Amino acid sequence: MREKPMRETTSVSVAIVGSGGAGALTTGNFVLEAASLAGWHGILTRTVGPQIRGGEAAALVRLATHPVECLSDRFDLLIAIDWLNASRFDAEIRLGPDSLVIGDPRGGEPPASIAASGARLINVPMKETAKALPEGRANMIALGIAMQLLGLSEDAMATVLERRLAEKGAAAIAASRTALRAGIDAARELALPVRLAPPGEIAGKRWLVTGNEATGLGAIRGGVRFAAAYPITPATEILEWLAPNLVKAGGVLLQAEDELASINMIIGASFGGTPSLTATSGPGLSLMIEALGLATAAEVPIVVVDVMRGGPSTGIPTKSEQADLNIAVYGFHGDAPHLVLAPQSVGDCLFTTQWAAYLAEALQAPAIVLSDQFMGQSRAAIARPADVAFIGQRRRATEIAAPYKRYALAGDGVSAMAIPGTPNGQYTADGLTHTERGIPTSRAEDHLAQLDKRRDKLARFAYGDHWATIEGDGDLAVLTWGSLTGAVREGLARARKDGVAARLVAPRLLYPTRPDEFAAALDGAKRLLVVEQTHSAQFHHYLRAHYDLPGEVRVLNRPGPLPISPGEIHRTVLEWRA
Amino acid sequence: MSTAEMRLACKPGDYKSDVQPVWCPGCGDYHVLMSFTRAFAALGLPPEKIAVISGIGCSSRIPAYTNCYGFHGVHGRSLALAAGLKVTRPDLTVVVASGDGDGYSIGGNHFLHACRRNIDMTYVVMDNRVYGMTKGQPSPTTEPDFDTALSPGGTGVRPFHPLVIALASGANFVARAFSGSPNETADILVEAIRHPGFSFIEILSPCVTFRPDEKEWKSMVRPAPVEATDDAARAARRLMTDDGFNIGVLYRGERRPFQPPFGRADADLTALETEFVL
User: Fold this and answer.
1) pLDDT of res. A1
2) Which is nearest to A258 in space by CA: A272, A278, A273?
3) What is the predicted ipTM?
């Protein structure tokens, strides 16, 4: 029974779930890549449990005719290779009465939420079909089903298989193609109520990249040539990407014994003149805070990327949250001015990390980059990010007449740094309060002078327009940050179609704060909606502490791992009007 | 200037800064500083090519008292900071200075991994068996019956044996020195710096303020009765059976120092993005 004509849509979402090792993520990645080759835009977010094998895994894929930076509100299609652990994340895969769910009769019982959603459930014997084929795998049957239902061409998928299974050999590719066709055949009589509109003309190069990979590339482009590494989910991929690529760029990565070592290693390397970075997540950042204060006091440029996950403590290592804002901004003891930046999308991980490396070097200060699991581990098809000229280069002391003043107070507060090996530049970098020459002191005026120096060099710097994303107009302003920027942008675009104008203000530079620029961005705003993924509204409190918030303020906050969807923003904005 | 001429031209005073030490009169660390400057002069190294890295504590104040590049970092992390410096700047001579609290307690984990990693640097721990800067608390090398305000009647915990730990963890050169013999200590330092890989020197350096009993050390130390060995097991056995006052080079290993390879500095960065292109 073939379904009746479907509605054309600009965006379609599919979730592929299975127990760990079933190949759900591979299937999702192949869908994304084939669709991208065909010219669509897309994003794949992974949601997995903590188990290494045998847990649960879901690939959440959204394909669209336009660039997408977030998931949609609902899934049009859910394919369950099995239902073994699917109930652990059914809240993250929202379905509706129009959704189609494909299960396997041998895959266990679907969670109660499937029936409750009103979605149509169809059983396809994926495992049995696969078993009848040589080297057949159920996830390739699922891939065929997805291709048929999403309208993906077999040519594009053949290219993907050639690329991704090359190492496994021609036999594996042939077996996959056979299974794929079996899946396509199994789904011939099925259809979704929606069909993705054809892709538009794509101009220029496009990339398929994760936020963590883009972060690594941004670091190297920003001048980073040394990284210290201690593995932690969900930041490890940055370090694994950097390990071979830093060497290609003339640098090196060193594995540390713990995060206390990795942060101190990068301080040592940077002291030696090499722009340096490490990447971690909340627990690691907690361990690094003392040495970040050292980098502030000794004025050693470093970059620390924190790919945020659910906290506190071990929290939810595999899922996203924005709750490290407080520790990044306020975690240091003493008065310790430093940089905190947050990328706003998968592609922006490249720019923001590159900018952070540039700023750290220019200002001789530590920079924390707050990425998160959502954008870090999402893979997106994006237009090749534009090249930018930000390359970290610190002010160096070269021709030195003794006595050298490493922490000289004159000028803009950024004092020329002597690199070991430079004659007459010998000084001791120190976490103790020091004089201009770097000699320890406990005198009140020396303390004040160096505190002023470190504050002023950051406060007076011209950061330019990159400090925030500011779009749209209207008396309603939505304030958000990080990976929620994309969801807010899309929610406001929908509201605009309903005739409701609103502006988006999302700071990329969170610290130091920019009071004048912020006030200008909110000029004329009468209502503010703060959107963030924390339980305690950390961003709202941060805004209250540093900025004047005009008019009425409402807060839409929720902890991870449930994302805040464009539809929720859209709805909140419309309801406030009424 | 040739290296030989350079050496003739170098005097220990060239390696000393004008900063006044915070140490108590009679502190063993003054003599360690003297050994540092004598060793640097003997090696004929330009002061700007030496980096002295430290953590927190009395001994960790030493970098600023030299005329070398220095880093006085956070408590216990000097070895990690030095590792980052040395792998990116193999041209520098890196000497790390620490004490028994900084190096063995809060920094204990880094000690194990620095030995294991075997980067070409020299680690000097001035051991006075007490936290001096915080006024007399027991450290990992303090005797179990040493009475302090923090551990009335003693800790009851046996001290551990850093030299044996260093051997077991893979240090490539192990020696014990006594601060009161600055020439001998300088000689050991010269050899340690020249020896490839991770060199570890325990320097017995009395704290005359909180451990006046350590003034007796000068009559207790003696040259080690046997030559250094290249057999780590033999060196460890000797160390575990001596009384802790045998002075000299105890072990010389032959492990290759660790230096991760760098790529070419003029590499084409545009090639890095090809893996992302659709």
Assistant:
1) 43
2) A278
3) 0.97
